[in-house]
Amino acid sequence: MCIAGLMAFSCSDTYDLDSKQPSGLNTLYGFMEDKGNFKTFLQLIDDLGETEVLSKTGSKTLFVADDDAFAEWYKSNDWGVKKYSDLSTAQKKLLLYSAMIDNAYPTSMLSTAQGPVKGEVCRRASSQSLFDSVQVVSTTSDELPNTPFWTVLQGTHPEIVLFKDASGAPPMVHFTPKFLAANKIESTDIDFVYNDPAGTRQSDDTYVNRSKILESQFCKNGFIHVVDKVITPLDNMAEIIRKSPSTQTFSEILERFAAVKDSTALTQAYNVNKGTEVDSVYVKKYFSDRSAGSGTTESSRVAFTADKDNRSLEGESSLKFDPGWNTFLPEVFNSRDGMMEDMAVMLVPSDAAMKDWWDNGGGGVIRDEYGSLANTPTSVLVELVNVNMLNSFVESVPSRFSSILDDANMELGITTDDVDSVFIGCNGLVYLTNKVFTPASYSSVFFPAIIDQENLSIIRNAVENLQYDAYLNSMVSTYSFFIPTNKGLLQYIDPVTYGQSQTQLWEFHLDATKSSSSQRIYADVYNVDTLTWEIVGDKVKTITGGTSNAQIANRLTDILDNIICVEAGTDDHRYLITKGKNFVKCGGTMHEAGSMTGAGSFQNEIGEPLTVNAVYKMNNGYAYIVDGVLMGTRKATSDILAENAELSDFYNIMIASGSVAITDGSHAAASQNQGNSSRGNLVAVGTGSSGKETFYSLLNAFHYTIYAPTNDAMQIAYDAGLPTLEDLAAAEEYDTEQEELDNETDSAEHIRSVYRDFVRYHVQSNSIYLDGGFTTGAYESAKMRLDFQLDDNGNPQQNSDGAYLCIAGSPYRVTVKSVSSSAMQVQDALGNTVNVVTSGGLYNIQGREYWLDNATIGKASNIENSSSVVVHAVDRPLLYDKDQFTYVNRKVIADESVKRRK
Question: I need a surface site. Which of 157, 227, 373, 717 has the fewest CB within 10 A?
């Protein structure tokens, strides 16, 4: 009957032992009395006045160690207790209440959450009170961090009442078969947690804190579980690290993030509980993105950013989570009680591992910069701490080590051989490692911006808040990162104002007093002289709000996209493509500070490249420090052609065909040009769904090569049948005459179509520079094939006017036959060899087309997109078809010369 009752009881989540006593069973207290070997535990109960509660009705769970277990504990424990009489009342409370739960739980239900939901729980509150473990600490004690956040107390208090955490008493940690099964955790993972050989754990073993349950008994007033070791309260991870003699180096770094907070409500509660009249009690907190609020719901996770005096930590320093947070809430949890479902993990290198890393490993870069860890800014070391803070124990067991990622979302690479031992904390596990796991940022081109917070703080803020750090930290890519100093960021020419009546310059600054990192960058705006590029007059305005402001974010994105090159340069390869599909030109001696230069297309336009002041060779490329911003040119393709008399015939053909949206030299984006809806200054003409003529861009958000025939080369085209401008003028006159006779003709438009197709074939997708590192081969042009639309019998279809119906086919291609820093040859579709002209500087001319967010000049606020071009003069035209100047009938009534060409 007892067995049947126990089985029924074990399947229930509701234990009403306060009002109903199962018959034939002993009480919790009576069970231990009858066994005879629990005298120490019974004495704890008696001394603390819990005898009556545990001898009668109630609903408790006890995890009890027998006298032999206590005898072993007296031999060695963290408290220094050698016998029972050494225990203080506070210590007795910790021993009893940390081994008690105020509800009845058999082992089968320990992992059950409210619902019931089985297998979800690995932590739960014990009967211990928050006030059981509070300490009174001298303000000069070595136990307090030696930082300004704590030393300020020394002048005002000889000692303080200090809670190591106030979110709750340290919870109990337990690993049950159901929890392991539900979370797909291997038995060997638990062996690892307890520093046992693989295969130690049996399938039905249950562990509580550092102990294993040996047997369990259902009693009148609850459940009793006999454990193999004395249960003591678990420290949180921060305390484990602080107390361990082998992790003092890492602890010193971690304690830099510790601060002291006071609380009126907690002070009142403490005085009521202790019967004291203390003026103020204090709580130890850690500057972090996630820390204790109130409760265990998602909204209770808050950032801790300021201490009791409203002081914040310098720089961009904030831990992933508070390592001293007893009731730690994971990033992801169900709506019931997140504290119970999971906990954290910290990888903590031993002192020996830290020394080896500092003296002989990757720490050498920081050592060379700052000399010692003590002198290294917290804003640098925060990266190291955070990569070793793992948000989930469930996802960080050895069987899932391969899924642990670093700050670049790459595999961290930890193995069980890297972990010497494991320490169980009330809010997570500490893996003591024999190597230092460093963030990808310490090896990436982003690293200089992390270590130099005096000169590179603005770009670091931009990178992190616009989330470019994961991109720059990637070890599967190679970068050349031209990092502007804070001084250099005072010289940004705003591309949006290139087409406006007054070009403007932005000076970026950082306001470190802003509590939110995303609010710190602001920009002072000035008018600038476009001849001298010097500021004119007083400040126009200040734009605030940091990267949370759309305008600031837009310009910083433009900057980052054009200072991050996605390849490394060499002596033979000096034009490097950027993330934004523009190109940077490297000059001087490559990778040599003081000699090497970098130039965006703007610097190339004005002939003022930026000198590289420092070079960092990192694992994923090079970082170059420059006192300026590599920017995009204001010149569109039309500007480049208009400025070079040798290319005037080609330019005039482009204008006549309607392929150039802006011809007044205003540098305005075509999206601001009235009269068409094109984006980019090179356009094409088509017919919309309504039959109305419309304009569309020849260029998209990509990079292109424009092959511009010289005037001599254009003569070759005219000889091959390309209509001249005189032909166009005659056709326009003829169309006018026919219109007066009520004849519908389109001779001029016929010629413009010839021009547009001619131009399109000179626009190539992909920029190819006279430079090493570019690939030969066939590239698409902007000229699409026109294929006849066939009927069911395979014959070309015609409309009612007799015009053939055509559809766009694949692009015609241009073949780059050879390319070097001194010469380039291309071949057209007819097999003609065309040479890039290398005299007179008519090659590698950079342009950029800007797409803005408003069609009215002066009203645009942001850059929507851009494309880059490189213009080369060529010695003959590119031809894609021997009959390209012959077209299907378009109702053209023409003079004899046009008829002959047709």
Answer: 157
Give the whole-angstrom CA distance, residue 389 versus residue 382: 11
- Beta strand spans in 367-491 (E): 389-390, 419-424, 428-433, 479-484
- CA atoms of 5 and 10, how far apart (whole Å): 9
The DSSP code sequence of 166-234 is -S-SPPEEEE-HHHHHHTT--HHHHHHHTTPPTT-S-TT--EETTEEEEEEEEETTEEEEEESS---PP
Dihedral of alpha carbons 771, 773, 776, 778, sign:
negative
Q: Which tops the pLDDT comparison, 264 or 809?
A: 264
> Would you say residue 207 lies in a domain?
no
d(CA 665, CA 891): 37
DSSP state of 131: G
β partners of residue 224: 62, 217
Strands 159-163 and 479-484, sheet pairing: unpaired
Cis amide bond preceding 330, omega within 30: no
Say if strands 833-835 and 683-687 run parallel, antiparallel, or are unpaired.
Answer: unpaired
Place of tokens 């390309």: 722
Task: Read off the tokens for 208.
Answer: 């509580």
Torsion angle in degrees (nearest 10) through CA of 199, 203, 205, 209: 70
Query: What is residue 596's DSSP assignment?
Result: -
Would you state the pLDDT for residue 803?
66
Query: What's the angle, vertex CA 414, arms to CA 410 and CA 418, rounded to 5?
Result: 155
pTM for the full predicted model: 0.83
- Residue 21: which pLDDT band, with cuts at 50, 70 and 90? low
Query: What is the rounded distance in angstroms from the CA atom of residue 875 to the CA atom of residue 843?
Result: 12
Please state the domain count of the chain. 3
Residue 462 phi, psi (nearest 5): -65, -45
In a shared domain, residues 654 and 615: no
Q: Is 422 within the bounds of a domain?
A: yes
Cα dihedral 40, 46, 52, 57 in deg (nearest 10)? -30
Q: Do the bridges between strand 60-65 and strand 222-227 make them parallel or antiparallel, or are there none, so unpaired?
A: parallel
Tally of CB atoms within 10 A around 578: 24
- Give the residue, 189 or 891, on which the prediction is more confident: 189
* Token reading at 552: 């600031």
Expressed in angstroms, the distance from the first to the final Cα of the chain is 108
Q: Which amino acid is at 461?
A: N
| Helix (H) or strand (E) segment spanning residue 92 | helix 89-97
Residue span of the structural domain in which 414 resides: 343-439
Length of the chain measured in residues: 902
813-817 contacts, C-beta under 8 A, 24 or more apart = 813/778, 813/779, 813/780, 813/781, 814/707, 814/761, 814/764, 814/778, 814/779, 814/781, 814/878, 815/776, 815/777, 815/778, 815/779, 816/768, 816/774, 816/775, 816/776, 816/777, 816/778, 816/779, 817/776
- Report the distance separating Cα 413 and Cα 475, nearest Å: 13
The answer to whether residue 507 sits within a structural domain is yes
Tokens encoding 105: 């739980």
281-286 vs 159-163, strand pairing mode: parallel
Q: Which amino acid is at 631?
A: M
Whether residue 320 has pLDDT greater than 70 = yes
Give the list of residues 6+ apart from residue 608 with CB closer than 8 angstroms, or none: 599
- Least confident range of 32-36, 340-344, 459-463, 636-640: 636-640
d(CA 867, CA 851): 8
Same domain, 684 and 817: yes
Nearest to 379 by CA among 541, 277, 253: 253
pLDDT at 9: 39
Evaluate whether residue 304 is within a structural domain: no
One domain for residues 473 and 387: no
Nearest to 106 by CA among 2, 224, 202, 245: 224
Examine the domain organization and report whether 532 and 643 are in the same domain.
Answer: no
